[in-house]
Amino acid sequence: MPVFEYLILNGKNPPQYIEVEHALDDQPLSEHPITGEPVQKVITSPSLTLNHSQEREKKLLSKDHLAKHDFSVFEKNKSGEGYVQTLGK
User: E strands, 1-89, where?
Assistant: First the structure.
């Protein structure tokens, strides 16, 4: 769910803001969820600093990469009742 920024309309200097996580189709808040003070939704640009892709994830989770960084990998055995170490010490 996205995080929305709200200005608390209490006249304080410097202005006070809160961040609230709610669905896109939810109505914007009109009051602070805790204090009941009036609030106004602030329009801001999204801040997406994600460094994620399927290719990068595959590379980071590859057995070569995990072995290089001394990780161990355990996989379920064929009977499904236990685990077998397939990588690491």
Answer: 3-8, 16-21, 39-42, 73-76, 83-87
C-alpha distances in Å from residue 23, one per residue of 8, 34, 47, 49, 79: 20, 19, 17, 20, 43
Cα–Cα dist 47/33, whole Å: 24
Q: Is the pLDDT of residue 47 over 70?
A: no
pLDDT at position 7 is: 95
Angstrom distance (rounded) from CA 34 to CA 55: 43
- Residues 61-79 pLDDT 10s: 898 999 899 999 988 888 8
- The string over 15-41, giving b where at least 16 C-beta atoms fall within 10 Å of a residue's C-beta and e elsewhere, is eeebebeeeeeeeebeebeeeeeebee
